[in-house]
């Protein structure tokens, strides 16, 4: 499959690109800063450079794709202003609709609830904390996911709480709060592997599974 990855040079995004390549997919990486493109990609990855406000660059990156993956996440620093990823997600979804691309996989935290999930102390806590202490980031992550859920696309939102830099464990618990046992920590490498696997797996279409190690 041809897969376009946004946030491709980030900590999880770059690992996701590697996982997709290992699975035999062709990858287009959307990058804001060409200097962050890993030299190891060589000519195996098509790179499109642009901001999330650049509708034309986003359109060019998605043209010809079979699926789109977003490893984007809100910046948590206090000096960040506005909601650039909310705007960028709208451009991304519009381009997918124009080009007839149906499959979309992205990331969030359990501050976003699965449509069929019952709230638990974990989900209430994880929604309360950012709403209280990180309002801008919370608003942005909702702005990135609410339009996805309403889009009619074949989306999957991969949720996680505490990503770590430990080595890939190769085992992931996935499911939903109140019905499955989901912990807090999960390695970035395992997030990337799980994300890449969703591209051609329909188990969680129009669901938002939570994952942990």
What would a concise description of this structure say?
With 213 residues, the protein is of the alpha/beta class. Helix content is 35%, strand content 21%.
Description:
By secondary structure, this protein is an alpha/beta fold. The chain has one domain: NAD(P)-binding Rossmann-like Domain (Rossmann fold). The protein contains six helices and ten strands, in the order E-H-E-E-H-E-H-E-H-H-E-E-E-E-H-E. The strands form three sheets. A six-stranded parallel sheet has the order 3-2-1-4-5-6, sandwiched between helices. It has a two-stranded parallel ribbon with strand order 7-9. The protein has a two-stranded antiparallel sheet with strand order 8-10. Strand 4, helix 3 and strand 5 form a beta-alpha-beta unit. Helix 4 (121-133) packs across helix 5. The model has no long low-confidence stretch (mean pLDDT 93).
Search tags:
alpha/beta; 6 helices; six-stranded parallel beta sheet; 213 residues
List the helices and strands and how they pair.
Layout: E1 2-6, H1 11-22, E2 26-31, E3 45-49, H2 55-62, E4 67-70, H3 84-99, E5 103-108, H4 121-133, H5 135-149, E6 154-159, E7 162-164, E8 173-175, E9 185-187, H6 188-198, E10 210-212
Parallel strand pairs: 1-2, 1-4, 2-3, 4-5, 5-6, 7-9
Antiparallel strand pairs: 8-10
